[in-house]
Amino acid sequence: MSDETKTGGCLCGKIRYEASGEPAHTMLCHCKICQKTSGSALSTVALFQKTQVKLLSGEMSSYAYQSDSDNTLEINFCPTCGSPVMLTMSHMPDLVSIKAGSFDDTSWYKPTVNIWTDSRQPWVKLDPEVTNLPQQ
Ligand SMILES: [Zn+2]
Ligand SMILES: [Zn+2]
Known about the structure:
Elements lengths: L4 E5 L6 E5 L4 E5 L2 H7 L4 E7 L3 E5 L3 E6 L5 E6 L6 E6 L5 E5 L13 E3 L15 E2 L4
Parallel strand pairs: 3-10, 10-11
Antiparallel strand pairs: 1-2, 2-5, 3-4, 4-9, 6-7, 7-8, 8-9
Bound molecules: zinc ion (2 copies).
One zinc ion binds next to loops.
């Protein structure tokens, strides 16, 4: 594991951030809410300690909602281009979840957990080599 700094941002480039070191977890979430907020089959995230992450430029808009497991989550996105960039979670206040597709270089990313596989799209194949959780 390296201490290299990973950089990323939104599509239009107004939001820029950096994350130092390695993420605590990398996961794919198949919950219905992530399907809505990502406009896709799942969301691809890397969880970092908040102290590892620094917002370099831009100001994010946010939207708070209750998750299926009744925690308050807040999605942070670019008000200009709409790209979702980060997510904060009331039950894990020290962590920030970064949308992995927003990193400039995603070659290091490898998911180790699938969550909410009960609600995944039927055509999504699960990797049997990673941990697969039917719910959270
Ligand atoms: Zn943007
Ligand atoms: Zn989710």
